[in-house]
Amino acid sequence: MGLEVFKLDGRVALVTGGNRGLGLVMARSLAEAGADVIVTSRQKERAEESAAAIAQATGRRAMGLAVDVTDATQVENMVQTVLQEFGHIDILVNNAGINIRKPIEEFDEESWDLVQSTNLKAPFLCIRAVARHMKERRSGRIINVASMLGIAGLAERSAYCSSKGGVIQLTRVVALELASYNVTVNAICPGPFATELNTPVLNNPQANQFFIDHIALKRWGNPDELGGATIFLASDASSFMTGAALVVDGGWTAE
Ligand code: NDP
């Protein structure tokens, strides 16, 4: 088996929330491996700017779409637009996600529902929207971005941790449903990466030190360090892997 198995030429990858942070790195990495990519944001300009930057850096075709992934109609429209423009979808990366941190007794229902609908309901909506297409083609790769906090708990993240644990279980069940159609479904579980999502921790010296102490490698991840695992899960290199959760967390959950 040569390095050819990592190549994604001719494939089309849809990355939700691919306009910044880990999603942008994943989308750019897939394009570097040869895929055409679609990135989304709730804001059209942000998605289009990121798509243009990816196209310029990689020479691949890239499109930006405005989508709120918690809205079933917008998700269905997103998939139809991509199919019209690109003809097929080979790779879906369910990346869009949010975190709201509060002690349990202060957690309001609105915040709870927003975290669950963005982190857990949206991957369900996106998978449902591409499943028929991937089944018909008897080919596909679905990557759900879970978290080390889908495995380990952390105080004041009740909604986030439970949503990400749910993503790992969703991954297993859908993997079983789609396996006979040659569609693989895996989760990727990032650990602490220095992105906008973690601004509250990065800006708080005490919380930051708590994080460093718990990361075996004693440093935050650079978002670029998620690229290799993404290409692996999206490519033929992972052809015998489905229903799995690949942890990329600097050793946090090894403890
Ligand atoms: P960022 O906050 O940097 O980016 C979040 C992305 O999600 C943005 O592109 C944002 O787009 C998009 N998004 C949020 N809500 C919606 C929505 N309703 N509809 C569409 N898009 C939405 O976060 P990260 O890059 O750090 O995180 C990406 C994923 O990785 C998340 O699922 C997160 O839980 C997970 N993760 C991150 C870790 C980390 O340490 N950074 C660790 C473990 C997991 P926009 O605001 O432009 O609409």
TrEMBL record:
It comes from the Bacteria. It holds the Pfam family adh_short_C2. InterPro entries: KR_dom (IPR057326), NAD(P)-bd_dom_sf (IPR036291), Sc_DH/Rdtase_CS (IPR020904), SDR_fam (IPR002347). Residues 11-191 form the Ketoreductase domain. One of its GO terms (molecular function) is oxidoreductase activity, acting on the CH-OH group of donors, NAD or NADP as acceptor. SMART domains: PKS_KR (SM00822). Keywords: Oxidoreductase. Belongs to the short-chain dehydrogenases/reductases (SDR) family. This is 2-deoxy-D-gluconate 3-dehydrogenase.
